[in-house]
Write a structure and sequence with these properties.
About 40% of the residues lie in helices and about 15% in strands. The chain has a single domain, classed as 3-Layer(aba) Sandwich (Rossmann fold), CATH 3.40.50. It has 6 helices and 7 strands; from the N terminus they run H-E-H-E-H-H-E-E-E-E-H-H-E. With about 180 residues, the chain is an alpha/beta fold. A hairpin with a 4-residue loop joins strand 3 and strand 4. It is globular and about 45 Å long.
Length: about 180
Amino acid sequence: MDKALPDILRKAAEKEKRLLITLDGPCASGKTTLARALAQELNAFVVHTDDFVVPHAQKTPERLAIPGGNCDAERLLREVIIPWKQGQTPVFQRYDFHHDCLLPPETPSPDHHVLILEGSYCNLPCIRPYADLRLFMTTPEKTRLERLRRRESPASLQLFYDRWIPLENAYFAVYGLPDDGCILV
């Protein structure tokens, strides 16, 4: 991690009563690892966009044709982002992809004043205006693909190649990410 990054984020946190940091980038770029490290450094709460995938019943061809449409951004805004920015404690339910159901409600500890929204699709146009800082991972493709090969089963790896990577690439292309508002990490 860039040694200056926590300092930049700490200074931003001192200025804001409640800071929302988005951490976007391609799969296997290190978003989750960086989010975990920053959470410890900043006493932040992390919410993963992977926990806000659209349930199977809502996965219409029309919705999935929209880049980022597989993210339930509406629920993410309603349950997490808007309450957070309004000074309330979010109450949200993570989505269990394997069982196609929402898990029991949870809330961050009230002592957190930094929320890190981590994962692809956290820079959708409906989310961007709420972010105080937007980070974007720039890990080389060779490194990312090697990480995927090490951590995924052959079937899961093929799903990344056939589905997840093309969906992410379309999202980045359509919404021009990373853009000038992103801090490249």
